[in-house]
Amino acid sequence: MTMADCPGLGQHASYRWLTRAGCSIQNIEIRQNPVFLNPDAEPEIKAIMLKNGILNPRINDLLSRARHTNLLVIADRGFPFWPEIETVDVSVVDDLPTVLQVLAAVRANFIIGKAWMAREFLRENTAATRKAFDRALEGIPRVFEPHIKLKERVPLAVGLIRTGDTVQYANMVLESA
Fold first, then answer.
1. Which tens digit of pLDDT belongs to each residue from 94-131?
2. Fewest beta carbons less than 10 Å away: which of 37, 90, 129, 155?
3. pTM for this one?
4. What is the pLDDT at residue 109?
């Protein structure tokens, strides 16, 4: 359940109400109400609007659940659907957003230790496209393997972010450091 599933949140809500309702308290500021200096008093809860970084709550949720060595997939528009893992589909139209745009946003909040990509990416794309991916993944060890082998890693991921990217074999499996 997410904050969006908690319609009674409003500007103020009780901590007990939120937890009883099963609401996520991610991105919620909890303060002790200064009027009540009683240590047994419930804290005041106020939602905080995100002002920068990743604004998509489902992507934030995926990133917050990733731990050391967990996998996250960023996929192009043609990547198969995997019902066994959470998919956040952010595709709008062709190439909006791209895998590289999502990767740039994710890198600010997710430390990547390793990336896997399909070997076919090298064969099917121009030098300029390969160079753009090289720059975006600079400093991150990469492994190129057959596309079929890359897809075997997908069920092990905490989630998949589907983009509108039309670059052939732009999919990547990222391991958190």
1. 999 999 999 999 999 899 999 999 999 999 999 999 99
2. 37
3. 0.73
4. 85
At residue 75, the pLDDT reads 98
Residues of the chain with CATH 3.40.1650.10: 57-176
CA dist list (Å): 174 to 41, 76, 118, 156, 169: 43, 14, 13, 11, 15
Q: Which CATH code for domain 57-176?
A: 3.40.1650.10
Alpha carbon distances (Å) from 137 to 8, 26, 33: 42, 29, 45
Average pLDDT, the chain: 83
* Residue 120 parent element (H or E): helix 120-124
Q: Tell me the pairing of strands 44-47 and 28-31.
A: antiparallel
DSSP β-bridge partners for residue 46:
29
Residue with the larger pLDDT of the pair 32 and 136: 136
Cα-Cα end-to-end distance for the chain: 27
User: In the numeric block, which tokens belong to residue 58?
Assistant: 């489902």
Active site residues: 68
Nearest to 25 by CA among 5, 50, 43, 3: 3
Question: How many angstroms separate the CA atoms of 4 and 9, rounded?
Answer: 9
Q: How many CA atoms lie within 13 A of 105 on its CB side?
A: 17
Cα Rg, the chain, nearest whole Å: 20
